[in-house]
Amino acid sequence: MLPKRTDLLISGTYLISMDPDVGDLPCADVLIGDGRIVDVRPHDPVAHPDAHQPAAPGRRPADHGGVTVIDGTGTVTLPGFVDTHWHLWNSLLRGTVGDRPGTDYFTVKRALAPHFELDDFYWAARLGLAEAVSGGITTVHNFDHNVRGPEDADANIRAHLDSGLRGRFSYGPPDSAAPDSPNDLDDLAALRARWPAARLDGRLDFGIAVRGPYRTPPEVYEREWATARSLGLPITMHCDRCLREEGCRSCGLTRLEELGLLGEDVQVIHAVHAGEQDIRALARTRTRVSLSPMTEMRTMGFPLLTELLDAGVRVSLSLDTLAMPTSADILGHLRAIVSVEAARTGSATVTPRRLLRLATLDGAHDLGLQDVTGSVTPGKRADLVILRSTDINLTPSGDPAEALVYTGQIDNIDTVIADGRVLKRHGRRVLADGEPDPVAMAAAHRDALLRRAAAAGDWRPPAAGDTTAARETGPDR
């Protein structure tokens, strides 16, 4: 059960709307009704005279004609962040993947993936989505590359709906599937019948996660592309043809263009080794690119953010996985990106404000949700994050956008609203009455998963005290 939607007024906040027609408002009121942004205007202290009076202990927030007022004094409000590529199923691998021998991402993933049970998929997704809420992420694209059957897909979809967040579920193959084994295209086609729009609450849509022509033969990828396009489903694929080859300078995207596989319905992930011709192919075909800078810099190379933006490629940002050393601290990620790009290219293309747009409105564009979320615009759904600008790391401040990227952190997030529901308040996640804590549930399921894999002989914990660094191997993500 989700927290109920309530009519809300965020009063007197500094608004970074990401809408060029609304702009930044240093002292704004944002009215929310029935899960929708009803109005955005300069703050009116006459209309809400007690909105900025501190609440006495035990007193409920101010209520004005059924509208609960959230005092926005000393806060910055943004649209909720949008993550465009996240393998939620392997959230349970966090703490198992590491630097010691036998604990690299691919070794652990291949060993444990076959041992996932139905509830493991559900609570792995709930863990990732709970961390998303904590980090102000209100939209998540679940790139599921371990769908072992229709029930697994359904478990992920239920988890997403139960989380309260918006997003997309992209249906992929089982982990380490044979190259000549296609996705379950029959179940993909049946998904909408099983999950009609009324069950999805307007918060979730579907796509397909494919391996593409460098991983599968023509009889597989041609059928997958044709099925996706006949169903009107967006396509997503990793672009890492030569991910770990010395001196790689091409992602092979020109071949995909020649085969007719690129386009506005295609999202390419990573593309860290894209050459000039690859980038031109992306721009010509209006193909979207999702970058995961933290995992890319860890195991692949530098994301080509400046080059892609300068070429006019539509770019968005993502976490990739919690199994790697990543977290939902989006502001920390943005800070790393802006510093890396300054050192790597010296270009002025990547600014704090541009990065905030990448993490919000550009992510919404990537997922086709630009009319639904990504900016604080009247008529859009109420997906918002409110941060305390009076915290020590954000004070004093000049441009709030610069302050958030250069010194902001996840601890500054006070309130997260997704589709009009308050999912985090006063820095704490809001759970419905009687709802199990996803963090505790995921930890228990992770322990049981390791025991099953160990009993089957597929998993052996690394020796204690072994600090030798592990090396990432393998072509798949």
From TrEMBL:
Residues 78-422 form the Amidohydrolase-related domain. Keywords: Hydrolase. Coiled coil: none annotated. Residues 44-66, 455-477 are annotated as: Disordered. Pfam families: Amidohydro_1 (PF01979). Residues 455-466 have a biased composition (Low complexity). Gene3D superfamilies: Metal-dependent hydrolases (3.20.20.140), Urease, subunit C, domain 1 (2.30.40.10). It comes from the Bacteria. InterPro entries: Amidohydro-rel (IPR006680), Metal-dep_hydrolase_composite (IPR011059), Metal_Hydrolase (IPR032466), MTA/SAH_deaminase (IPR050287). SUPFAM superfamilies: Composite domain of metallo-dependent hydrolases, Metallo-dependent hydrolases. GO terms for molecular function: hydrolase activity. PANTHER family: AMINOHYDROLASE SSNA-RELATED, CHLOROHYDROLASE FAMILY PROTEIN. This is Cytosine/adenosine deaminase-related metal-dependent hydrolase. It comes from Nonomuraea roseoviolacea subsp. carminata. The lineage of its organism: Bacteria, Bacillati, Actinomycetota, Actinomycetes, Streptosporangiales.
